[in-house]
Specification:
about 220 residues, 3 helices, single chain, alpha/beta
Length: about 220
């Protein structure tokens, strides 16, 4: 059984970290069920374990938190669905790479619900969409924008942190960082792509697609 929690309003980042730490420890002890937590944060930047100081362009724009998850700098804020996954990876084969791939495929399947083709790119973490209406890249390839970020941490084979999917955030807020260390691609959202999608629509799709990719053995 996986408990789903959906929080109304904005959840302070430190409060989310405290909850995840406690829940992960309880899951590892066998004292709590797995959990997927759907929420929004107030505007903030987080630094993963691979974050480079030069990628924090405007350190005074929003609060900056050390996330202790994998990855580099990310933005969280209103209009972005954050999906924290507290799941037992040991029950899913103890394969971290496969677990991350399963998270990516879950996001891609969810986006397909809205006729959005999400794709994975070697060397670029997260989920991307092609933007043929934009100018081509310098190498002549089709422009691509990031629509979802993924970064996890494991403790005793239980995951925490997780996924963020852009529904309708203020995309200018990403300008204070180099998102995930990538300078030659942009950021988009479901609404930016012209889709009248809200948080509830996305939540329904996430729950519908979850079992196909992330049920335990």
């Amino acid at each position: 059984m996986v408990e789903w929690i959906t929080s109304d309003g904005f959840v302070a980042y430190q409060d989310a970290l405290t909850f995840m730490e406690q829940r992960v420890d309880a899951i590892a002890r066998g004292e709590a069920t797995e959990c997927v937590w759907l929420l929004e944060h107030p505007p903030l930047y987080t630094a993963g374990t691979s974050a480079k100081s030069k990628d924090l362009i405007d350190p005074n724009r929003f609060p900056v938190f050390e996330a202790r998850r994998g990855g580099e700098y990310t933005y969280h804020g209103p209009g972005q669905r954050v999906v924290y996954v507290m799941l037992d990876v040991a029950k899913r084969g103890r394969d971290v790479r496969q677990f991350v791939k399963d998270l990516e495929n879950w996001v891609i399947a969810t986006l397909e619900t809205f006729n959005v083709k999400g794709e994975i790119r070697d060397g670029r973490v997260g989920v991307w969409v092609q933007r043929p209406e934009k100018p081509q890249q310098i190498d002549g390839s089709v422009a691509e924008d990031k629509i979802a970020a993924i970064g996890i941490r494991l403790r005793k084979w239980v995951s925490f942190h997780g996924i963020s999917i852009n529904v309708e955030p203020d995309l200018t807020h990403f300008a204070g960082i180099v998102p995930c260390g990538i300078t030659d691609h942009g950021v988009t959202s479901l609404v930016d792509l012209g889709l009248p999608v809200d948080m509830n629509d996305l939540d329904v799709a996430l729950k519908r697609c979850f079992e196909e990719y992330l049920v335990s053995a």
